[in-house]
Design goal:
about 260 residues; alpha/beta; five-stranded parallel beta sheet
Length: about 260
């Protein structure tokens, strides 16, 4: 079921959809008599690619996800944290991916999302001296687990090893929620993940019985206060942002159909 979900969701994402439409369109135009259908597919693939890679469209797609929960405020080392944050006995960082490239430090091995999530958790731990850090992510083959890379990166940022707990078997957010519930029980937990992933993650954690405080990080929408013509253009970052937005909606639909949220 897990791999079937991954396979189906992959082919519904912007890049695979657009490439499939363009490829089929070229084949129909060049090698069959269905030229009209092929041209229609070529137009559809091109239009979708232009839309998904546009800054305005990608921002419109991801903004509802990223504005669901506010970011934690700026906190100095001696500041009194908000009451809801101060009550947290655990901070959990959901897996964000890494590379196994030899010669890179653990912090450098992390993906941009993984690094942003971890840095936010370490920032919050500075004002939560009694809280423990839970890091999550499985390994691949004989490679070290993502949780292990996160733990070593957290140590490099000054977190004591004794404060870190690893969840190395959870393959997706639903599994992570169940694993964290086994560790934390009813204790308040600060949930740190990318802002675009937070609505689905928070819903799954609450469904699992975890007392969850959303602490979003890795915001992708950072618009200028003033209007700039460049805000209307296209780039690869926008295509990536659209992909996150589509993936999250597919993921939420999947767990909703299974009555997991």
């Amino acid at each position: 079921m897990f791999w079937a979900k991954k396979f189906v969701s992959f082919w519904l994402l912007p890049v695979p959809v657009c490439l499939a439409l363009l490829t089929i369109g070229v084949i129909l135009v060049c090698f069959t008599r269905r030229v009209r259908t092929g041209r229609a597919l070529l137009v559809a693939g091109t239009v979708l690619l232009l839309l998904f890679s546009n800054k305005v469209v990608s921002t419109w797609l991801v903004r509802p996800l990223e504005t669901r929960y506010a970011a934690m405020p700026e906190l100095s080392a001696n500041a009194t944290p908000p009451e809801s944050l101060a009550a947290c006995q655990y901070l959990v960082v959901l897996g964000g991916g890494h590379t196994d490239a030899v010669g890179l430090t653990p912090l450098t091995q992390l993906s941009p999302s993984g690094r942003a999530r971890l840095v936010e958790a370490v920032r919050l731990l500075r004002v939560l001296p009694a809280a423990r850090l839970i890091v999550s992510g499985p390994g691949s083959g004989t490679n070290v687990s993502h949780a292990s890379v996160l733990a070593r990166a957290a140590e490099s940022l000054g977190v004591e090893r004794g404060r870190i707990l690893l969840v190395e078997t959870a393959r997706d957010t639903e599994d992570e929620a169940g694993a964290v519930w086994k560790i934390a029980g009813s204790a308040p937990v600060g949930l740190v993940t990318s802002a675009w992933h937070m609505p689905r993650a928070a819903a799954l954690f609450r469904k699992a019985g975890v007392s969850t405080l959303p602490c979003p990080a890795d915001f992708s929408v950072r618009q200028n206060h003033d209007f700039r013509w460049s805000d209307l253009t296209w780039d690869s970052a926008s295509l990536e942002r659209s992909t996150w937005a589509v993936r999250e909606r597919i993921g939420y639909l999947w767990v909703w159909l299974r009555r997991k949220v």
